[in-house]
Amino acid sequence: MTSSALQTAVTEIAEEMAAREDRGDVASYIPELGRIDPRQFAISVVTRDGEIACGGDCDTAFSIQSISKVFTLTLALGIAGDRVWNRVGREPSGSPFNSIVQLEREKGIPRNPFINAGAIAVTDLVLAGHQPREAIGEILRFMQFLADDDAIFIDRNVALSENATGFNNRALANFMKGFGVLENEVEHVLGVYFHHCAIAMTCRQLALAGRFLAHNGVRPETGYSVVTPERARRINAIMLTCGHYDGSGEFAYRVGLPGKSGVGGGILAIVPGKASVCVWSPGLDVTGNSHLGRIALELLTSRLGWTVF
Ligand code: DON
What we know:
alpha+beta, Beta-lactamase, single chain, 10 strands, three-stranded antiparallel sheet, 12% strand
């Protein structure tokens, strides 16, 4: 495929998405996200040889929300290795992202690191007895390093908004603390969790940050190894099976790539060996995943023949 063919596909998809009326609903349970204009759309694709194809609002920063969980999992695996899997499983939950029902039956061990309970348990491992601000800084610097962009920031208003309304996450965290799954203070863990969910990035920055997952753990432009090939493969596997909560089967069926969504409307998708892709459209479907983002990825993969299957 020529580089112009990729840019043409991306431009056409951005134009098709801009024309659609069906946009889904923005996530109003975090009041600050409820104010986002749902008419925005962006797509960025970064290929192995460094080509970047962009369409729509790809330099507009948005709240990455649960997409941050891919990167906190990567950090936690670096800190604790396979001990991560004593605290959290790696099976799809089949339940909504904020569900609590399985936690009691499964002794406070969340099904996977991407549902809220699992991500809170992973955040506890990243916190690892440090001050919350140190852990927040470490996560932010990791994102800046991966995207090669120091301008990436945390949207304080989103973090405060989620802190003020995070009753479900407090319930999940306290429940896990009761089972002895969290080591740090609940409010410290949640403080770090709310802040990493509130990282603001553009589609271009997120696609750049995902490169190591597309290329066996290596940032291809520098040859720098972020994680081992085995670890990159495993993170991709969990993205494929759990990255869209109870919409994970549908996403695999329609898009056929590892992906991770966030309620800010972003999706990071990985085309192993080929590209890292980010799409953003703030309106969500009933499973809390970007409505037009998923449709755009389905168009991209079918037009370019990109799939892991
Ligand atoms: O904890 C929450 O509810 C949000 N900070 C993150 C949820 C999320 O992004 C789910 N993704 N689709």
